[in-house]
Amino acid sequence: MNIRLAVEADKTAWDAYVLAHPDGSLFHLDNWRQSVEQAFGHPSHALLAEDGGRVVGVLPLGEIDSRIFGHFLVSAPFAELGGPLADSPEVAGQLLELAAEIGMERDCAYVELKNKSALDGLPTKNLYFNFSKEIFPEVEANFNAIPRKSRAAVRKGINEGLTASFGNDLFDDFYEVMARSYHQLGTPIFSRRFFRAFLDVFGDDAEVMVVRNKGGHPVGCVMSFYHKDRVMPYYAGSLWEYRQLCPNDFKYWELMKRGCERGYKVFDYGRSKVDTGSFSFKKHWGFEPTPLAYQYQLLKAAELPNLSPANPKYQKKIELWRKMPLALTKIIGPTLAKYLA
What gap in Å lies between CA 41 and CA 128, rounded to an integer? Predict the structure, then answer.
């Protein structure tokens, strides 16, 4: 068994292993690492396990070093998932051993592992849940499967004259809606370069949608990924002042319909934190939550980190952020958001 840092020449073998592994996700792919590194320059410590020249395990790791949010390793940065993929628990264990060694060498407080299922012996934070559901072959069957209240909201959006446009040439409108939406939520916005990196690196597997009202004004948006048989809306925003038009219900229906027409099998709504508005929204759409196991190797840290916006210590900062001028948040936001991995 040989476990080492992956290099550029390993990309093909790495991605082939991820695509073949039953738990391999979009976030394990080398394109995800490449996008984050291209946008922010965070150091990567992607670990590759080989046996007889054959890949038997991978662990993508990014290093975040912030005076505000701390110094840690995370698998994978800005991702829903990213923990070790391996042929056996023994291989996974060896990957984790090397991850901890690198963390100690780099003077990190902890290693965060965004696992689909819990690994034995590691402290776990039960905060996030994934929402995924089958896409039926017929468009009408998918519409009828939406619970009554959410289906009525989709109809209202249609009746109000909302329209959906797809295409990465809509990036400027997408980013403007995202920046305003994040400001309204009290959350720092990522840089344009971050979102653009995903479109550049993933190519046809990443796509922007913009929702407009009948006056042509952008009121909602989403950046989605297409992975294996899944449609994955991942970065989304909408403007609070147009909430009566139901742009969120409308845009997700339009994306589900597009996925159905293109032959995708699963609508992956992504993760949400328990007891949040997005968690309730997805449940109201008839999606059942599946817990994700975010686990930690505590190195210098004495307790599990809590960088969630729900942490009470961040509430005053969130309210202050909402009161700041939008233009200022576009300048300051990216310097903070690059560390919120």
Answer: 27
Six-digit token pair at 165? Answer: 């446009």
CATH architecture observed for domain 130-290: 3-Layer(aba) Sandwich (3.40)
At 133, which helix (H) or strand (E)?
A: strand 128-134
The reply to whether CATH 3.30.830.10 applies to domain 2-128+293-337 is: no
CA 134/CA 329 separation, integer angstroms: 38
Helix/strand/coil for 78: coil
pLDDT of residue 315: 78
Pairwise CA distance, residues 111 & 125, whole Å: 13
The answer to pTM > 0.90 is: yes
Q: What is the 3-state secondary structure (H, E, C) of 157-203?
A: HHHCCCEEEECHHHHHHHHHHHHHHHHHHCCCCCCHHHHHHHHHHHH
Which parts of the chain have pLDDT scores under 50? Answer: none
Report pLDDT for 311: 66
Amino acid letter for position 298: L
Give just the sign of the alpha carbon dihedral 286, 309, 179, 339: negative
The answer to whether the beta carbons of residues 125 and 295 sit under 8 Å apart is yes
Residues whose CB falls within 8 Å of the CB of residue 186, separated by 6 or more in sequence, listed in order: 309, 317, 318, 319, 321, 322
pLDDT per position as a tens digit, 165-218: 999 999 999 999 999 999 999 999 999 999 999 999 999 999 999 999 999 999
Q: How far apart are CA 10 and CA 33, in angstroms?
A: 13
Nearest to residue 137, comparing CAs of 258, 268, 261, 233? 261
CATH 3.40.630.30 domain span(s) along the chain: 2-128+293-337, 130-290
